[in-house]
Amino acid sequence: MFVLIWATLLFTVKGSNADPGSFLGGKQHCLNGFCITLSEGEITAEAGLCVVIPCSFNTTYDFTPQHLVWHKCEPSKRRCDDSDIIFHSNKNNTKVQSGFKGRVSLMEPDVSQGNCSIIINDVTESDSGSYHLRVNGHQFGRDSGFNYSPRTIVSVKDLIQKPTVMIPPLTEGQQTTLTCTAPGLCSGSEPNITWTWRGAGEKASHITGNITALKTEYLTAVTQRHSSTLMFNLSAEHHGTEVTCKVTFTNNITTEETVTLNVTYAKQVKITGNTSVEEGETLNLTCSVDSFPPSLITWIKLSLNRNLNNDTRSATLVIPNVTAEHSGPYICTAKHLDNNWMEEVNITVKFFPRILSSSACEGQSEVLICVCISEGFPLPTIKWPLLKNHAEYSVITSTTVSNHTINVTVSVKDRNYTTVECVSSNDIGEAKKNLSITRKEIKQEDLLKNFLLSFKLPQVIIAFFIGILLSATIFCLARKCRRNKQKSSGNVAETLEMGTIQAVPLIDAGQSVGNDGTHEGGAEAAGQSVPDGDVEPREVEYSDIDFSLLKRKSPTGAEDTLETPETEYAEIQTKVTKERQDNGEEDGEMLEGNEEEKEEEEEEEEEVMIEEDKETKQCMSAEEEGGEDVAVYSNVKEIMGDV
After folding, report:
1. Rounded to 5 degrees, what angle do the CA atoms 99, 65, 23 make?
2. Tell me, what's the pLDDT at 640?
3. Radius of gyration (Cα) for the chain, nearest Å?
4. What are the residues facing 115 on neighbouring strands?
């Protein structure tokens, strides 16, 4: 047991920065068979901690040790007395200095083991001095003791050891645990451990989190380890925070350790700078990412597909004397550990309007067509001062080539202009240009093109649709009138079927019959007369003809029977007119004009007459059999044939 404790003590003394003291090696001193081994040289200790004085002894065979007594006295004092006792293995001894009571203990309580090592806890600077050992026992049957003359020098200095803070890898969004271990392996009074933290530019404050109570870990019977833990959830705001573990020992002796938290995190890509610049200015954009570890920032222009600039933490893109070609999308890429973030920004370069050389005017026939093409950003507008003097013109506007170019075509009446001014303007400025005019003879295909082009005018389109509407209205009215005429013709045909139409005296018909001498003056018999030269058109009316007057005997004395030829219905006026024309009479000319006006009416009435054909034949048969005068309808051709 003694060997184990001694080995542990030596290991902690020599190998740990939390030593109770420094063991510089031991040297044996013997006198009259009493030997002691003490540390050679000075043993240093730090206030608030503990110090171990290594020691081993042996006596003569006739001496039996019972108690060990340690004294602390001034080096100038040749022999220490009872007033200098700091430790006595006999706990009933009352001569121990009050300042050392409870602070000193043997490393090995069994005195017979020859281990005289002691540990002094909660040392202060006043504990500095020389220490020597006395062994009390029995020799030759009586109490005896032996004072070892060699002394051990202990020097107590200010506490310089700091707590040990263990920090695991820190990642945003995860829970972490920090551990603070107090310096020293002393078994004395338990220290007090507190946590504080301070953000950038902030005062130290107690940290928010779950702080565990002091934890004591017993390593050996005389060595202990004291520690405390802190648990909390990490965020990006914890990065760079200073966390302090403070340990307070007896006599208000304190020590502390401050660590900086490095939290792995990455925020979004941030681009600063003006993305809209005028031509000739300097483009200055900065791309940055708040992250840890620092991210690698790269600028890329999509159209170039190459890196423009890269750096850590932030990268600045500078392009002096920008032009329109520098417009377009740029991408800032941030690489953080195994992750990549990208942020796209669109750069716009504003520039003055420029009227392109392809702008020109061309005169065709009486039309002047002008084209003005301008580029600029923002997209310019085009004005024609010429249009102020024109009430009618057409303008066709179209954006072509890119978002920076506008193409405007205007068509006006040509007034023999020599030049036409085009004005292009945007927010940056204005450009003017006099367009030259070329004239050429218009071709057939150009006529068609101009005709079609005219249909793009709003007023032409409106007039076109109005014309269609009027034409449709007139057509409907004409069709309605025609139907009304057909309806009237149908009523006349119905009246004819009923035999109610009265004979209309026709001078022409009477005169025609009178050519044979049979019915001369027929018109006069009807009480009608037609003035010479009257060619005014007359309404067509159908006449009753008395076929009994047309019967006459044949040369053989037999009475001729009228043969009924194929029935044809016609207007009597029209047929008489035709006969007059054959005979060269003047009345035929008077009726010639009526023939043209009645042609359409003939067609409409012809269908009605054909339907009456069978009734007419029946009426004629009844007249021959009954000998009665029956009114029948016939055409002039039949009548003239019978005559």
Report:
1. 55
2. 41
3. 69
4. 56
How far from 499 is each of 160, 474, 526, CA to CA, in Å?
150, 38, 19
| 3-state percent breakdown (helix, strand, coil) of the chain, nearest 5 | 25, 40, 35
CA dist 473 to 93, 461, 463, 487, Å? 141, 19, 15, 21
Written in H, E and C, the secondary structure of 158-194 is CCCCCCEEECCCEECCCEEEEEEECCCCCCCCCCEEE
Distance of CA 429 to the CA centre of its chain: 32
pLDDT at residue 188 in the model: 85
Phi, then psi, of 578 in degrees rounded to 5:
-65, -40
* Contact status, residue 587 vs residue 580, Cβ threshold 8 Å: yes
pLDDT tens for each residue of 527-586 = 334 344 444 444 444 444 554 444 444 444 434 444 444 444 444 444 333 444 444 444
**Which neighbouring-strand residues pair with 285?**
273, 317
Residues of the chain with pLDDT under 70: 1-25, 200-209, 305-306, 397-403, 441-460, 487-643
Q: Is the omega angle on the peptide bond into residue 293 within 30 degrees of 0, that is, cis?
A: yes
**According to the model, what pLDDT value does residue 641 have?**
42
- H helix intervals, 515-571: 522-525
Separation CA 122–CA 188 (nearest Å): 6
Task: Report DSSP letters for 579-601, one per residue.
Answer: HHHHHT-HHHHHTHHHHHHHHHH
pLDDT at 439: 83
- Biggest CA-to-CA distance, the chain: 218
Q: Which amino acid is at 100?
A: F
DSSP assignment of 341-388 equals EEEEEEEEEEEEEEE-TT-EEEEETTEEEEEEEEEEESPPEEE-GGGG
Selection from 395, 382, 302, 392 nearest residue 342 by Cα:
302
Count Cβ atoms below 10 Å from residue 617 Cβ, excluding itself.
13
- Which residues fall within 8 angstroms of residue 540, CB to CB, at 6 or more apart? 571, 573, 574, 594, 598, 601, 602, 605
Q: Which of 159, 224, 217, 213 is nearest to 188 (CA)?
A: 224
Per-residue pLDDT of 190-218, as tens digits, reads: 999 999 988 765 655 555 667 777 888 98
User: Rounded to whole angstroms, how far apart are CA atoms 147 and 142?
Assistant: 17
User: What pLDDT is stored for residue 159 in this prediction?
Assistant: 93
Residue type, 599: E
